[in-house]
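>> received
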Amino acid sequence: MEDAIRTEGGDAAQDWESRLAIVVETMREMSRQTDPQAMVRAYGRRVRTLMPSDGMVALSRRDLNPPQYRITRSSLWKEQVNPWKDKNRLPLFERGLLGELLYGDKPRIIQDLQVAENDPAAEYLQGQRALMALPLYDSGVALNMVVLLRGNSAGFDPEELPQAVWMGNLFGRATHNLVLAEEVQAAYDMVDRELRVVADMQRTLLPTRLPDIPTLDLAVHYQTAHRAGGDYYDFFALPDDRWGLFIADVSGHGTPAAVVMAIAHCIAHMHPGPPMPPSRMLTFLNEQLIERYTGNNGTFVTAFYSIYDPHHRRLTYASAGHPPPRLQRCGGGEPVALDDAQHLPLGIRSHEPYEDRTRTLEARDRILFFTDGVTEAMDAAGEEFGIGRLDAALAGCHEDPQRAVETVLSAVHEFTAHRPNVDDQTLLLVKVK
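>> returned
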């Protein structure tokens, strides 16, 4: 007797251990899947060892009107159809036993299966004598269902039903999430391709090369935080060898900022006559933006426009709320902020009175024009790079403009521990020969 009890106990232990091993391997395999179709196939193979059946049919009423439903899978099919990508190849039915089960919205076991000859889906149930219907819920409604079939009457143990419903729904949610992830990735890839095109188009609006300005050496760095951005710099050839130097930053990030940046570029280049003096250029930009684009959407543009006269080494400038450029007197003295012409950003208030200021430069003077993505770059503690660190990085007056720009960028990257920048960053450095 004791031997019999011991044997029965050993068989029971072996049974649950075997089932547990199957479940663990099933979960491992599911966790590695990235394709919903492959995941369904793998799950089906595994479940058949835990819950054998003589047939299976899967149903869906997603995106259909009652009493319509589709058969999405069947053990009778030699070739399985991908229900997410080839929906039109799936057979469409109305009513019948399978429709009644699906729209019944709850689990069922039929132990003595009788199928009417005129049932629209009779061929999928032919020769079967018992079924277990497992609804798969989405937003509280059985939009899908798996129907397991057996060839003998009373073929399903009702004790299996709760676990089967639980397992089926957990798997259904996992599959649905995988489908959504695939759709999100496809949508992301499409948007990313479009953003690449936008970024390429935006790059064409920037100068293709630095101009040859008498008595000046120049260097520039332009980096968007996303595919496209709202930073903008430009040069304007003017009469008497003068040159306009323009830098701007659109509020916000990404594609919306890039669109306004492109608009600002177009407006700047449609200025009637030479864009001078700087205050007139900013006034023209401001009125056009307010009248046509930014009046009601809260977008604004900071800008700093200056005109350099190489014959007198004179810089005339006006500012629309842009971070003041840093003038470094390499002949001696502390860096100076060109902040004496500050007014509101473009696109905020009509008839803003922009004003011009003038500085006479000396040999070896350097001016760094920049956007706030440089000084507002943050470290892990949330501290900004700031003006002080910017001036310190510019301290080496012996460096040529390109080397100086690289030194500033290196200081910013070291400060932020090389984390990706969250805002566009533009640097334009000019040095008086």
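>> The chain has two domains: 33-174, 207-432.
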